[in-house]
């Protein structure tokens, strides 16, 4: 702890606009008692507090703050994605960057299982029937015995596969390094186009849990949607541009696929007049699958695990270091 100010500063902007108060409290519980944690509530407080801190954490950091942050050794990004950060300025200042990789696994995986069951068991249709006081059976299906392809076998993808296991589904994983294997029954590479097409053609559910890269941008395009079966459901909890939106809208409008559950969209936020809102076979959530009260607790666990390395200035040992 320094007499001049806090050691750790939590910036005011939280993930998805959620207050960082819980995050600061979780850090105080986990870090040594002599580590001073402060939460900036305003832009003025950020400018006042950041120069003293060895660690600054939050969803984003303004480049203007970095020049004055002469003691900062680590910026702990509160989200898994970090491309929105001023990485050049952070690197020039000698600041290491960590992210929130792994924090989203349990919460997003539960969201995926929930929306898959929603489509399988026709919960949305029955909910609408209840609102109309209408007693009419449908033809729900079973998740048991179905085939699920998961794009991305990082923390989120692995958590999805783990939670699907009790349903006795067949799983296919798509990842950059298929030689690493994975928790799925089969693994194919992103560059194995025949293998990916084969997986899409026999999948009942396709889950996108991969990062957005030049390889994955638009990976679900018109051709991929045509390859999927008419009953198949697409679930996107990765990034909106993984899917070509116009092609998806056309496929849903023609019932060329069974449906789509989208927690991320392109564009995002989804404009109020966008056709996806009005499609009965589309389920839209506002990039909310990753945030639960435990999100900030898991995020605080990452920074707490890194504190010894920060204190010893051994930044190569940082967990989740990305830069």
UniProtKB/TrEMBL annotation:
<dbReference type="InterPro" id="IPR006140">
    <property type="entry name" value="D-isomer_DH_NAD-bd"/>
</dbReference>
<dbReference type="GO" id="GO:0030267">
    <property type="term" value="F:glyoxylate reductase (NADPH) activity"/>
</dbReference>
<dbReference type="GO" id="GO:0016618">
    <property type="term" value="F:hydroxypyruvate reductase [NAD(P)H] activity"/>
</dbReference>
<keyword id="KW-0520">NAD</keyword>
<dbReference type="InterPro" id="IPR050223">
    <property type="entry name" value="D-isomer_2-hydroxyacid_DH"/>
</dbReference>
<dbReference type="Pfam" id="PF00389">
    <property type="entry name" value="2-Hacid_dh"/>
</dbReference>
<protein>
    <submittedName>
        <fullName>Hydroxyacid dehydrogenase</fullName>
    </submittedName>
</protein>
<feature type="domain" description="D-isomer specific 2-hydroxyacid dehydrogenase NAD-binding">
    <location>
        <begin position="114"/>
        <end position="288"/>
    </location>
</feature>
<dbReference type="GO" id="GO:0051287">
    <property type="term" value="F:NAD binding"/>
</dbReference>
<dbReference type="InterPro" id="IPR006139">
    <property type="entry name" value="D-isomer_2_OHA_DH_cat_dom"/>
</dbReference>
<feature type="domain" description="D-isomer specific 2-hydroxyacid dehydrogenase catalytic">
    <location>
        <begin position="28"/>
        <end position="306"/>
    </location>
</feature>
<dbReference type="Pfam" id="PF02826">
    <property type="entry name" value="2-Hacid_dh_C"/>
</dbReference>
<dbReference type="GO" id="GO:0005829">
    <property type="term" value="C:cytosol"/>
</dbReference>
<dbReference type="InterPro" id="IPR036291">
    <property type="entry name" value="NAD(P)-bd_dom_sf"/>
</dbReference>
<keyword id="KW-0560">Oxidoreductase</keyword>
<comment type="similarity">
    <text>Belongs to the D-isomer specific 2-hydroxyacid dehydrogenase family.</text>
</comment>
């Amino acid at each position: 702890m320094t007499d001049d100010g806090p050691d750790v500063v939590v910036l005011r902007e939280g993930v998805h606009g959620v207050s960082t108060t819980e995050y600061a409290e979780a850090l105080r519980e986990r870090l040594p008692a002599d580590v001073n944690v402060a939460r900036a509530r305003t832009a003025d407080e950020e400018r006042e507090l950041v120069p003293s801190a060895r660690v600054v954490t939050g969803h984003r950091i303004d480049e203007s703050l970095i020049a004055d942050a002469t003691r900062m050794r680590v910026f702990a990004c509160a989200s898994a994605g970090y491309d929105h950060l001023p990485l050049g300025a952070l690197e020039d200042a000698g600041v290491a960057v960590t992210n929130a990789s792994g924090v989203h696994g349990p919460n997003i995986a539960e969201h995926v299982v929930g929306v898959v069951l929603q489509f399988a068991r026709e919960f949305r249709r029955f909910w609408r029937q209840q609102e109309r006081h209408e007693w009419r059976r449908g033809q729900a299906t079973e998740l048991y015995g179905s085939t699920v392809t998961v794009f991305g076998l990082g923390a989120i993808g692995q958590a999805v596969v783990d939670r699907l296991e009790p349903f006795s589904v067949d799983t296919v994983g798509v990842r950059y390094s298929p030689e690493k294997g994975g928790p799925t029954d089969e693994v194919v590479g992103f560059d194995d186009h025949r293998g990916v097409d084969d997986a899409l053609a026999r999948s009942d559910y396709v889950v996108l849990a991969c990062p957005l890269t030049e390889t994955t941008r638009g990976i679900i395009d018109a051709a991929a949607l045509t390859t999927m079966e008419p009953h198949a459901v697409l679930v996107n909890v990765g990034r909106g541009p993984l899917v070509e939106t116009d092609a998806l809208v056309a496929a849903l409008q023609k019932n060329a696929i069974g449906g789509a559950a989208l927690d991320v969209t392109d564009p995002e936020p989804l404009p109020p007049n966008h056709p996806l809102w009005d499609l009965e076979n589309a389920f839209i959530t506002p990039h909310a699958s990753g945030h639960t009260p435990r999100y900030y607790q898991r995020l605080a666990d990452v920074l707490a695990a890194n504190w010894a390395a920060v204190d010893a200035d051994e930044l190569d040992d940082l967990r989740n270091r990305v830069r």
